[in-house]
Amino acid sequence: MKKILFIEDEMALQKTLGESLRNRGYDVQSALDGEAGLRLATSIHPDLVLLDLVLPKMYGLDVLKKMRESKEAKNIPVIILTNLENIDEVEKALEWGATTYLVK
Questions:
Q1: Residues 29, 7: contact at Cβ < 8 Å?
Q2: In whole angstroms, what is the distance from residue 32 CA to residue 72 CA?
Q3: What percent of the chain has pLDDT over 70?
Q4: pLDDT at res. 43
Q5: How far is CA 30 from CA 17, 83, 85, 94, 95, in A?
Q6: CB 49 within 8 A of CB 70
Q7: What is the C-alpha separation between 81 and 14, in angstroms, rounded?
Q8: Cβ(66)–Cβ(35) under 8 Å?
Q9: Which phi and psi (to 5°) does residue 85 adopt?
Q10: Contacts of 9 (CB under 8 A, 6+ apart)
Q11: Which phi-psi region, left, alpha or beta, contains residue 57 (left: φ > 0; alpha: ψ -120 to 50)?
Q12: 48, 79 in Cβ contact below 8 A?
């Protein structure tokens, strides 16, 4: 079973998307802040990370950067899923190794 880590601080979105992914056969793990998300990314080795940018405790781009610097998480695909449409943020996320950038 493919494992997805969903790092998102909005409980309603986490619940709705998480349930949808579980119904499609994925094992979904969740984190409500950037620090917890980074810890999980390096410990559970998910097949994919869905990452919000605006998070408590650690900004999403910082999570992405630290993942790319980590031996355990540097090759995990990351999809940025955020409300921010700033082109600088998009370019930085892609430069730091995000697979794609989706605006919610």
A1: no
A2: 21
A3: 100
A4: 96
A5: 11, 19, 24, 23, 25
A6: no
A7: 11
A8: no
A9: -115, 15
A10: 32, 33, 52, 54, 55, 56
A11: left
A12: yes
Our measurement of the distance from residue 13's CA atom to the centroid of its chain's CA atoms, rounded to an integer in Å, reads: 13
At residue 76, φ and ψ (nearest 5 deg) are -75, 125
Query: 3-state DSSP call for residue 33?
Result: coil
**Distance of alpha carbon 63 from alpha carbon 53, whole angstroms:** 9
Coil vs helix vs strand at 97: coil
Give the angle subtended at the CA of 38 by the CAs of 14 and 7, to the nearest 5°. 10
Tokens of 50: 């869905």
pLDDT in tens, 34-70: 999 999 999 999 999 999 999 999 999 999 999 999 9
Tokens 């079973």 locate to: 1
> For 23-37, how does the pLDDT look when each residue is reduced to its tens digit (9 = 90+)?
999 999 999 999 999
Locate 5 and state its tokens: 């880590």
Residue 79 belongs to what H/E stretch?
strand 78-82
